Amino acid sequence: MTDYIGAHLSSAGGFFRMGKTALGIQANTFAFFCRNPRGSKAKAVDPADLEKLRQLLEENRFGPLVAHAPYIMNACSKDEGIRNLAEEMMRGDLALMEHLPGNYYNFHPGSHVGQGVETGCRLIAEMLNRVLRPEQNTVVLLETMAGKGGEIGGRFEELRAILDQVELQEKVGVCLDTCHVSDAGYDIAGDLEGVLAEFDRVIGLERLKACHINDSLNPVGARKDRHARIGEGTLGTAAIVRCILHPKLRGLPFILETPNDTPQHGEEIAMLRREMALAQGQAE
Questions:
Q1: Can you count the helices (H) and strands (E) in the chain?
Q2: Cα(209)–Cα(188) distance, rounded to whole angstroms?
Q3: Which pick of 6, 66, 161, 175 has the fewest CB atoms within 10 Å?
Q4: pTM
Q5: pLDDT of 91-110, one tens digit each?
């Protein structure tokens, strides 16, 4: 089975150029922002550029891509204007993703800012029910979060509460972030089997469509969300390799969001592939 490993890349210079960059670092998947990650300005849509990228992906047998919503999106804010902006951004991003059918669009569920988890989950699901369309070719992913402050998604039960209220069930899934789940209190480094069993019990592993692979600067349960380079945090390289090679996760796109530039991400990908080969050889 093909292992899909990539990194979060800049789309500056165009989408086709981003695909060429991915090939240059030996990635066979990648993530990108559809717009300014810390603002609301959308990238101009160039259908020809997107078509060139689509052809490159097909020719080089890339796995699914994992587009990312801007960090400022908060679908469960107290402020109706902020919620409306989140909805507008997601609609625009999903329109762009129709030029790259069959991929994923990942977003942080948001912060309930004192309204409570139940209200926050309801507001997120209501937005998804207004935005999602039966004919769309993109699956929208809720990301597991570290659970800091009023952040929703630090517990698997919170993501399940959102998913249960979504009408178009086939259009939603989950992206698991290794740093986030560890910071949220799930011991993914010390008890991967237990964490996956809990995910399966609460959400269902069939809902897991992608993974962000990051080490963490924090101990389990710190609820802080501080990413580290692979092997330079509390999770360690071996734990990340176990995730990628786990039989229940094989074939998912694994995206590096570590604090590196693109060449360093290439080095991390090469290192992970070496460690994976070694682990597989030892298993045999």
A1: 9, 10
A2: 17
A3: 161
A4: 0.96
A5: 999 999 999 999 999 999 99
